[in-house]
Every structure is written in C-alpha cells, then in structure tokens.
Specification:
The chain is an alpha+beta fold and 223 residues long. It has a domain at 2-149: SH3 Domains (SH3 type barrels, Roll), CATH 2.30.30.40. It has helices at 2-14, 89-105, 111-222, and strands at 22-26, 32-35, 44-48, 53-60, 65-69, 75-79, 83-84. The protein has a five-stranded antiparallel beta sheet with strand order 6-5-4-1-7, with no helix packed on it. Strands 2-3 form a two-stranded antiparallel sheet. α2 (89-105) packs antiparallel against α3 (111-222).
C-alpha cells in the first residue's frame, strides 16, 4: 500500500509538459494584466487569473516584462515577477489533497509516504499563508501609493493655481511699469514746457525792460 502511494506520488510529481518554450504559472496572489507591450502605457489585452499556465516566449530583463502566450493563443507581456517556474502553492495543495484522498480511499497509504505527503501539505499551507501576508502587504502599499498620488495631484493643482497667480501678478507689474513710464514721460514734457515758458518770458522781459528804461530816460531828457 505504501509502495503504491510512493510510486503514484513520484509519477504525479515527475510529470512535466515537454514543450519548446518555457512554461510558467501566474502567482496565486491576484490577477495580473496581460499587455500588448512591455510597459504600463501599453494596452491591457486581458486579465490573467491566479494559477493560469502560460508559455514564456522571451524575457526582457531591462523592462522586467516577459512575452507570454496563453493556452487560448493570446500573446502579450506580463511582469516577470508575477511568474513562477512551478504551479502555485494552492494548485499543488489541491493536487496533494486529491492524491491523499485517492490514496486513502484505495487503502494504499504507507505511514512514511503519508507523512511525506502531509509534510508537503503543511509546506503548501505555509506557502499560502506567506503569500496571503505578501498580498496584504502589497494591498497596503497600493493604498499608500493611491493616497500619495492623490496628494501629488492636489499639490500639482496648487502649483498650477500659484503659477497662474504669479503670471497675473507679472502682467499687473508690467502694466504698472508701462503706466509709470508714461507718467514719467508726461512729467518730463511738462517740465520741458514749463522751462520753455520761463525762457520765453525771460526773453520778453529782456526785450521789454530795456525799452521801458529808454522811454524813461527820453522823458527826463525832455525836461
């Protein structure tokens, strides 16, 4: 019974797809986006569920993306860090649970092999708990990023309002400067006219006063 379980477990664990391209599975943290290119600005083609098997066609270490093909034939790019080289812990747990159930129902379990499967079962459970903690941390980071992004948008709006106020102040300053220049020009013209008027009056007085003196002298000479 134990020997049969050992052989069954070994066969199940040793089975692997023989394909030209590398196989990878989507991490069991959450859904990931399949994009048309290796950047976040590219179009989202579809959302890939946790545990989905993908065919890796190439990896781009610079962008951190990998080009993959789904079992339905859709090709696109996903973040490499969301791919695993083996099935997700949740799927492994389901397989191991099925193996354990089948082996028990057939009455073909050996104590040593059962302990090994239970150990793998516990390991898978621990892996799931770790992934759930990581998922919670990522969700918290995402919420913090959203709050930070909202603050950045608010700051940008404030900066834009201040820039508009500064531009308006500069326009008002330029207008006042032009008005000041115009007033300065008018003042200069007024002073120039006043000087010309004083000069003209002086000339008139210079011409008129000698005539008055000459007339007075002429009158005195008559007497």
């Amino acid at each position: 019974m134990k020997t049969y379980l050992t052989i069954t477990a070994a066969l199940l664990l040793s089975l692997a797809p023989t394909a030209h391209a590398e196989s990878a599975w989507v991490t069991d943290q959450f859904e990931i986006m399949l994009r048309s290119g290796p950047t976040t600005s590219n179009q989202i083609l579809l959302m890939v569920d946790s545990g989905t098997q993908l065919e890796v066609l190439e990896r781009d270490s610079e962008s951190g993306y990998s080009r993959v093909r789904t079992q339905g034939g859709t090709e696109g790019w996903v973040l490499t860090r969301y791919l695993m080289s083996e099935r997700s812990a949740r799927e492994q747990l389901e397989r191991l649970t099925s193996q354990l159930t089948n082996a028990t129902s057939r009455g073909s379990s050996l104590d040593s092999q059962l302990l090994a499967i239970r150990g793998e079962y516990d390991t898978a459970n621990n892996r799931i708990e770790t992934l759930e903690r990581e998922k919670s941390e990522i969700e918290q980071e995402l919420a913090e990023i959203k709050r930070t992004a909202a603050n950045v948008l608010a700051i940008n709006e404030q900066n834009q309002a201040l820039t508009e106020q500064l531009t308006a102040s500069q326009i008002r300053g330029d207008t006042l400067e032009q008005e000041n220049r115009a007033l300065s020009g008018q003042t200069t013209r007024y002073w120039f006219l006043a000087g010309a008027l004083v000069l003209f009056v002086g000339i008139l007085l210079g011409i008129w006063l000698p005539k008055i003196r000459w007339q007075r002298r002429s009158r005195y000479d008559r007497f």
